[in-house]
Structure formats: C-alpha cells, structure tokens
Amino acid sequence: MSEDRQSDPAAANQPLDSDAALAALEAARKQAEDSWNKYLRTAAEFDNFRKRSARDVDLARKYGAERLAHAILPVRDSLAAGLAASTTGDTDGILKGQQATLRLLDDALTTAGITEIDPKGEPFDPQKHEALSMLPAPHAAPNTVLEVIQKGYQLHDRLLRAAKVIVARGDDG
C-alpha cells in the first residue's frame, strides 16, 4: 500500500486502480522470487557444509592416528634392530638398545598427548587410580599410594588406563 492509503482510512477501503494493483502484484512476486532464491542458496550452502563436515569427520577418523603412527614407527625399527642384535649375544648392547627403545616409545606417547600416571606418594584418587589392596603403613598418611603395581595413562585429560596401586590404610583399620 502506498503511504497515502495507509494514512487515510477512507482511502484504504477503496480499491486500487489496475495499474497500481499490477505494480503491487509484480513487486510482491519479485520479493517472493528473491526470498525463494535466498532460501535455495541457504539450503545449498547448508547441504555443502553438512557434506564437508561429514567428509572432515571421516578423514579424521581414518587418518587420526597418523601422527601416532609416525611416532611409533621408529620404536618398531628399534625393536627389529634389537631382535637382530640378540643373535650376537651382546647383552650389554641389547640392554642399551631396550633402554633406547623405551625412550623412543615414551617420546612417541608424549608426542601423541599421552602422559603417564605414576602416583607413588600421592593421595589416592579413585578417578585415576585403582586400589588393589590396602596395607598398614605407619610411616605414610592414610589413603596415600604406597606402591604402583601398574602405571596408568591419560590422553590429554581423558583417562586411558587407571594406575593399579596399593594404598596406605589408616590405623583404624
């Protein structure tokens, strides 16, 4: 509606002339067509985004371990070299090779964001530790980890494996 018809209530009740009606109809069609085109573009963009996201997730799932694999390959090579060296009978060389292999593996785990949980002497934390038994320990505070049977590991802040521990029991029992 034109401003004249909106401000004048009597004019609002009168029919539009045919040229004005055709112009208003054409403007409405144009606006509807523009809105439909915007909708189609938005729907296509969203569909492309959805497909791209699914492809990214699939690639991350497929190749997510690539960094860890690159870090572990030298460990495999070192183990193979150690097995080959074991036929020579050089026990000192074999021991040094095993120590080097363990260092390579620790470096690979660190590179992947995996950290060791070695809680000896720390307070027992059921979120990160699995108590295998409790022993009386007058020299240690109650609920303190006395011994680590198996170290735990976490990936960034997610627990991979709880540390298996023996915990100090209080005097009461």
What's the helix-strand series?
HHHHHEEEEEE
Please indicate the percent range of residues in DSSP E strands (runs of 2 or more). 15-25%
**Span of the ends, CA to CA:** 89 Å
- Radius of gyration (CA) equals 36 Å
Main β-sheet: number of strands, strand sense, barrel status?
3 strands, antiparallel
- The global form is elongated
Mean pLDDT: 87
Structural class: alpha+beta
Q: Could you give the order of strands across the largest sheet?
A: 1-4-5
Portion in helices: 55-70%
The residue ranges in which pLDDT falls below 50 over 5 or more consecutive positions are: none
The total beta strand count reads 6
What are the defining features of this structure?
three-stranded antiparallel sheet, Nucleotide Exchange Factor Grpe, Chain A, domain 2, three-stranded mixed sheet, 173 residues, 5 helices, elongated, alpha+beta, 55% helix
Explain briefly what this protein structure is.
The protein is of the alpha+beta class and 173 residues long. The protein has helices spanning 3-7, 9-12, 18-63, 66-85, 91-111, and strands at 114-117, 129-136, 145-150, 152-155, 158-161, 163-169. It has a 3-stranded antiparallel beta sheet. It has a 3-stranded mixed beta sheet with strand order 2-6-3, with no helix packed on it.
